[in-house]
Design brief:
about 675 residues; alpha/beta; 8-stranded parallel β-sheet; 7-stranded mixed β-sheet; 25 helices; globular
Length: about 675
């Protein structure tokens, strides 16, 4: 077997990989993966069964898991305490040193249970690439960042079904993540906040308990994550708890995506706030094995502006913030949980970093493409623990921002390694109704798995690891493309990149244009968000909105032609795909959903152009649209939305799908009113 290290696709790529001979080993049709001198453990049993299922599904092989020396096994696994944390080694050799027998022997040494799980995931990936005939190799591997975590938003639109969450966990497991956080604001059926979740098909406590078990068996820590300060929109709009907020009078305002992101912060000086949130923390934490708890505490925009304004003016907003966080940490200390909190507010008041309890892990987020190292260095210099947090750049869009994502992820991972961060947390948000489909985050999940692991030879060509090296990046993107298309379309990431650059009118634009209208007046929150003067009229605001986007919107037809080409290229990949295993089914879903999302972006591009053409009083356009054009466009929207809703409901609960439909319906009504 003529194999070179550079042709082996593993994510994350090992620290050391060596081809030890030209012969190959052939896995027998029936054998065992045996754990020697290791007590039975559900985590390694589960990993072993994953491998056996792969062999059954792909080759109809009959493999099983065993413990001890009772069976002759093709794969032997043992503990080696001399290895470093999370380290494992894999050796493949010919059985009994007799090449003619060609019976496979794979030997695994691992530091601990977690390391064994990582080793088995590597073997699964090798089988995926090479089938039952594998090269002679030696692998020595370990991660350079201890915690590789993924955070998924389950509050702002989408609430996944348990079946989908299990598929997500399987993917995290395959790529050696070891922590998952589900971001919750109101979407958990805790009894004391029923008013906030009763209409939102929340996750149930029983689902969380089952998911926690599922994660544990796959070597992943499910960490409870709950907003406890800012971003309390639905809780603070409920009749029973509105008085706990900074602006109780705002609880009756009509629903707004923009307002949900900007307002509704707890009033920390209300004597009922801490008892309420402490009970909520304790009730939620009780569902999890984890001894960590992410309290959020980010973007407390209203703090010191409403009910707490007088005390904030006296004591300072920073002291108000740190005092409240200290009380939350005290609650966590009572139940033996280590706090995790977002770092954005503390970073605005650096002296506050010293006031936060020393055992806090700061989740240090920044999603800019040109993000600098400054905040990561600042927390490191305070000798504080931190998870460095890049983002998938999927929110407020149908097609993720590919260029921003790869730039942000690569830079933030680089800073995490350089500053000895204890973790890397990839965040995936759902602002403005979570229109983005979760499967489209998969390329960035795989990319982050590689960068956070920190292989010294990411490019696999004996070039020292460099996050900025274009050859290393291109190699990784090609590998991701091959993983997602079963080696059919190595250009997949290039197609995704081209599609992401073809956005003339975004979902964010559609939401903000709608919400500029506050019962005939201009919406102050949207004006603030857009940087407009706070006293301009609705007519003036819409004119400025369209003027600012005029050139981009006029690219709609050109961009839609580009998107048609992307769809055609993806259909070619789809037609060549096969569907043997669960993983391949996920990848087929990826292609289908990408096509659906691109079609949705074509609709948004056309929507922007129709709005511009229908707004002669706001723009320079003279191309008025007819009601017949609008009627045809409405049918296009409806046909697409049926497919979109089917996809949504196949992986998630109904949740806030209706709110996304309301945005399209509003635009339809607006176009009908403004057409000839």
């Amino acid at each position: 077997m003529d194999i070179k290290e550079s042709t082996i696709i593993l994510v994350p790529y090992p620290q050391k990989l060596k081809i030890t001979g030209n012969d190959s080993i052939t896995l027998p049709e029936s054998s065992y993966i045996s754990f020697k001198n290791i007590k039975p453990d559900t985590r390694i049993t589960t990993a072993g069964k994953q491998l056996c299922v792969d062999l059954k599904n792909q080759f109809n092989f009959d493999w099983n898991v065993s413990y001890g020396d009772g069976y002759k096994s093709a794969i032997n696994v043992s503990i080696n305490k001399d290895l470093c944390a999370q380290e494992y080694k894999i050796y493949t050799s010919l059985a009994n040193n007799q090449p003619r027998t060609n019976r496979a022997i794979i030997t695994v040494e691992a530091k601990d249970i977690q390391s064994i799980c990582f080793a088995i995931q590597t073997i699964r990936q090798l089988i995926k690439q090479f089938g039952t005939s594998m090269p002679l190799i030696e692998i020595e591997d370990f991660p350079k960042i201890p915690v590789r975590a993924y955070s998924y938003d389950v509050s702002r639109g989408r609430i996944p079904k348990l079946s989908w969450l299990k598929i997500l966990v399987d993917q995290l497991c395959l790529y050696k993540y070891n922590q998952l956080q589900l971001y919750v604001e109101h979407t958990i059926d805790l009894e004391n906040t029923i008013e906030s979740w009763i209409k939102h098909t929340p996750l149930t406590c029983s689902e969380i308990i089952e998911l926690d078990e599922y994660c544990y068996n796959r070597g992943i820590e499910l960490v409870p994550t709950m907003a406890t300060f800012g971003h309390m929109y639905e809780v603070l709009r409920s009749p029973s708890y509105k008085n706990l907020g900074e602006f109780p009078s705002q609880s009756q305002r009509p629903f707004s995506f923009v307002e949900r992101m900007l307002h509704h912060t707890f009033n920390p000086v209300n004597p009922q706030t801490i008892p309420f949130i402490s009970k909520r923390i304790k009730d939620y934490a009780a569902l999890f094995r984890s001894n960590k708890f992410n309290i959020g505490a980010d973007e407390t925009f209203d703090l010191g502006c409403g009910e707490s304004k007088e005390i904030a003016q006296k004591d300072g907003v920073a002291n108000l913030y740190s005092s409240y966080v200290q009380k939350l940490c005290n609650t966590l200390q009572e139940i033996g949980s280590q706090p995790i909190m977002y770092a954005d507010i503390a970073l605005k008041h650096p002296n506050m970093l010293c006031a936060i309890p020393k055992n806090v892990i700061f989740a240090n987020w920044n999603y800019a493409a040109n993000v600098t190292e400054d905040s990561v260095k600042l927390i490191r210099n305070q000798n504080a623990q931190q998870y460095v947090c890049p983002g998938t750049q999927t929110w407020n869009r149908l097609i993720p921002d590919f260029d921003c994502a790869i730039s942000n992820i690569s830079k933030m991972c680089k800073y995490a390694h350089k500053n000895n961060a204890c973790g890397l947390l990839l965040t995936d948000w759902g602002d403005y109704g979570h229109i983005n489909d979760p499967i489209l985050s998969l390329p960035y999940l795989i990319m982050t798995a590689q960068y956070s692991w920190g292989s010294s030879k990411i490019s696999k060509n004996n070039v020292e690891h460099d996050f900025a090296d274009i050859n290393s990046l291109n190699t990784l993107l090609k590998d991701i493309s091959n993983i997602l298309t079963d080696n059919i379309c190595p250009q997949l990431c290039n197609i995704l990149q081209e599609a992401s650059r073809s956005q003339a009118f975004s979902w964010s634009d559609a939401v903000q244009f709608k919400e500029l209208d506050d019962n005939g007046d201009s919406n102050k929150d949207v004006l603030f968000l857009l940087g407009f003067k706070k006293d301009i009229s609705l007519k003036e605001a819409r004119k400025q909105f369209l003027t600012d986007r005029n050139q981009q919107i006029l690219n709609a037809e050109k961009y839609n032609n580009t998107l048609y080409k992307c769809i055609n290229d993806l259909y070619k990949t789809y037609s060549c795909s096969k569907c043997y295993t669960l993983k391949e089914r996920i990848n087929k879903d990826f292609i289908n959903t990408t096509i659906l999302s691109i079609q949705g972006q074509q609709i948004l591009n056309s929507l922007g152009l129709y709005i511009l053409n229908a707004s002669a009083e706001y723009s320079n356009s003279s191309n008025k649209i007819s009601k017949d054009q609008v009627a045809y466009f409405v049918q296009t929207i409806n046909n697409w939305f049926i497919q979109y809703a089917n996809r949504w409901n196949s992986i998630g609960k109904s949740a806030d799908l209706y709110r996304i439909r309301q945005v399209f319906d509003w635009h339809i009504d607006w176009l009908l009113k403004n057409s000839n």
